[in-house]
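Hi V.,

You were right to ask for the full record rather than a summary. Here it is.
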Amino acid sequence: MKVSGTFDVVVSGGGPSGAAMAWALASRGIAVAVIERAEFPREKVCGDFVEPAGLRIIHRMGAAEALGLESRTAIDKVRAYYGPHIAYQNDVAYYGGEAGMPPHGHIIPRHDLDTALLENAVRAGAKVFQGTRVTEVRREKGLMHITTKNASGEGELVAPVVVGADGVQSVVAQHAGLRRDDKRHIGISQRVYLEGIEMDESEACIWFDEDHYPGYGWVFPAGNGMANAGMGMLSETTDKFDISLQQCFRESIERLKYRHPGCANATMSSKPLGGAVHMYGGITRNHFAGGILVGDAGGFVDPMTAEGITQGMESSIIGARTIADALEKGSFEEADFARFEHDFRAYFDYAMLYLSFYATMMRNRHFGDFFLSMTRQGFERAQHDREFARVSGTGFGGLNVQPAAIAAQLWSGIARHIATGGGAVLRDLMAGRGLPRDGFVGDWNLWQRGWRDSVRSDPAWHMAWLADIVRAVSKLGPSFASDQNPRVNGPFEQGTGL
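Predicted structure:
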């Protein structure tokens, strides 16, 4: 059947962000259509991990029962490898269960998650067209015309508002001149499903190796001897250093078999698939005359972990308020959607700009040994310092990122490291043993080597990287303007279901 009709809003893309947008609009009585090129259920390159904040939204939308969350294993522990060394094996200290969030995450395969969320939008009143591509978006006389194509041929939907929830290759973003291609803010990944796994099903595993820096790998238990295993890296790095992500991934999976006891007999039960994400640090403008961009199309992805399921749904729930206001006023120019820019920045900037600052610093592969050493020491400290784990650990995937508190912990730790290291240097020199090769001196040597190699390798790129750091620092005002992270209480309006 050809897709055609007139609606209040057309959403391009039926993933979590598109489904959340459709649900939020339909729940307000707004006529909304969703165009999804795939036929659900379908595979999607992802770690399949849904954090507590994402689970809170799923419960609020009424989709928890359909996903069988009560019967899924709670993920509340993590194991972190640095090479063959386990730097951390303990509970996820920042999963405190505050503000209506459960104290755990769940592994929910995307073929289950996306299907259930889209069906939930249909129950709220949304019209969904699957197996249909958006081929063109144009604006004429104040209306958005969305050309579609499916097995039955071309069709057209007309609406005053269009929402781009159609991922990194967003057709809607292309129409608005807002598609991002800055490799500094694009993460690429490979993912495979493993079988023959014998690991604690409540413990996630992440690993860091020098050959895939900046990036990390993961193994998330999916139950019944299955696991989701993958690796992500920065697109800029693979391009600049001619690195094959696919080769790094294959080699890491083989190493994983003898590093993690539970993966010794692991075999691939699916083909490796690749994907890409646009991270928050690359956001410019996400509104235009006739609509907005949400989810991955808008760059709503954590710049440190590349997690985007929760952020995508949050961006849609926030954006639905802007769209509802525009429909009520009957005006759909760019200025009418500017509220979205204000609202999402008020919600996300506090934490995301701070994380983007750290992600910018760690982009330089020449400093890989230094940053791997420093973060490994952080995980090791978190193993026995639970307050440090609770606060600073949020930089690796926690919702309640508190920039001032993290900075205080990190700088006090650096001061202790320097003081302890300096004392050791003096003692060794006085004893005639020369300079030590580890501790503070070792880290300083790693920093110096990274700086020297970066300058020698590409002076122009090195200076551009430093300029990016300066720009990231200049944006940190919102991160220290308050001691309250807006994301803690979630994106829903107080006193309403939305």
